[in-house]
C-alpha cells in the first residue's frame, strides 16, 4: 500500500495562557490523506479544526506552537524542515484557501497580477507571455466566463463567488498535490456554494489532488468528502467514510451534529446558531436523527452522479 500524501501523527498545539504556562487547543490528533482523496474535518467553532490546518501549513500565529507530534507530507516531516524549505513547498506542492477571499486578495492589484505573483514565486524564469496564457487558462479551469476581461478587474469588481473562484485559481496555479480549504463556502449563498463544492471536487478528480476540507456544515461534508473526521474540543472523536458516518454514527457528539442538520422545517440560521453555541448542541434531546437515506443533502453512493 502506497504511503499517504499527508500524515499527521499525535499533533499537540499549545498557546500561552495568563493563568498557566500553556493551554492545549489540539490534543494528540492523528489522521492521513491519500492522493486524490477528500478528507473533511468537521466541528463547531473552537473545535481545533482550523488550528490543525494552520499547523499543517506552518501558519500558526507566532505565539502558537506545535508542542509535539509530526506532520509528514510526501514522506518529509514538515516540522523538521528549515523555513526556506517550507517556503518551497507552500504555494507549490501544498496550498490553502480561506473563508473570505477579500482578506487574501490584494484590493489594489488586478486579478492577473495576483495570479502572476503566485506563478513567479516558484517559477522565477517564467516568461511574460507564459504568465498571461497560464493566468487565462487558470481562470477558465475554475469555470470563470470571459476570463480575459475578469483578469483585468480588481477584486472589488467581482462577486463573492467569483472572488472565491479566483482564490482557487491562485491556489492551483502551481499544480499542488494537496489543497486545504478552510470554510471556503460559508460566506456564499446556497447556489454559489454548491457550484464551488462541485468545482473543488472536479479539480480533485481531474488532478488527483488530495483535499483537506474544513467545515462546520455536515450538509457540505455530504456533498464533497470521501472520509470525515469529527473534532470536538481539540480531539478527533470519530472517523469514518462519509456514508458510514451518515448511516451509522458512533459518537454521541456526531449524532447531535446530525440532529442539528437542517430539514425542510429548519432554517440554516438556526443551524449556524447551534454550531456557534456548543451548549445548545448538548441540550438536543435524544431521539431519531436523519440518516444518509432520508436527507436531501447527501450525494448518491459511488457510481451515481454528484447532483444527488
Radius of gyration: 20 Å
CATH class of the largest domain: Alpha Beta
- The quaternary structure here is single chain
Task: Compute the number of helices.
Answer: 12
Beta content: 15-25%
Straight-line N-to-C gap: 32 Å
Total count of domains:
2
Second-tier CATH architecture of the largest domain: 3-Layer(aba) Sandwich
Low-confidence stretches: 264-275, 283-308
User: Could you describe the largest sheet, including whether it forms a barrel?
Assistant: 6 strands, mixed
CATH superfamily of the largest domain: P-loop containing nucleotide triphosphate hydrolases
What integer is the average pLDDT? 85
CATH topology of the largest domain: Rossmann fold
Q: Judging from the principal axes of the Cα atoms, what is the shape?
A: globular
Helix content: 25-40%
Order of helices and strands: EEEHEEHEHHHHEHEHEEHHHH
